[in-house]
């Protein structure tokens, strides 16, 4: 009686051994081919069984993320360029104000020089010297 039960259990054990060897080889292959971070992703794909849908979904997600990042970068760049243009215009206005002040002061200085010369001429003519 023990003999038939051994014959029945032996093929089951042999089949289980084959499955164990195949699983071990698959795990070893994953460790050799994939780095540590991608091993976790492969395990998740095996668990879900929908590798094609996950890849397509993550690809679409990556494209959306890239698109959103690209749009945000463009908006920030536009804001920075606008701010620089605003600063340039403000600087130009301040420079124009300073230039106009300098010109008016130059005119005032020239008028003061003329008045000084007139006073000196008048003092020289009146005979008062230092």
From TrEMBL:
Keywords: Membrane, Transmembrane, Transmembrane helix. It holds the Pfam family DUF4577. Residues 37-57 are annotated as: Disordered. InterPro entries: DUF4577. It comes from the Eukaryota. The chain crosses the membrane at residues 65-89. This is LSME1 protein. It comes from Rissa tridactyla (Black-legged kittiwake).
């Amino acid at each position: 009686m023990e003999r038939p039960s051994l014959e029945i259990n032996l093929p089951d054990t042999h089949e289980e051994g084959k499955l164990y060897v195949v699983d071990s080889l698959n795990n070893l292959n994953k460790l050799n081919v994939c780095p540590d971070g991608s091993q976790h992703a492969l395990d998740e794909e095996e668990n879900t069984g929908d590798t094609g849908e996950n890849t397509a979904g993550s690809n679409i997600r990556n494209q959306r993320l890239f698109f959103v990042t690209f749009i945000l970068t463009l908006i920030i760049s536009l804001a920075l360029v606008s701010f620089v243009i605003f600063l340039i215009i403000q600087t130009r206005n301040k420079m124009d104000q300073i230039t106009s002040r300098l010109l008016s002061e130059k005119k005032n200085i020239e008028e003061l020089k003329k008045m000084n010369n007139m006073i000196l001429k008048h003092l020289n003519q009146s005979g008062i010297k230092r």
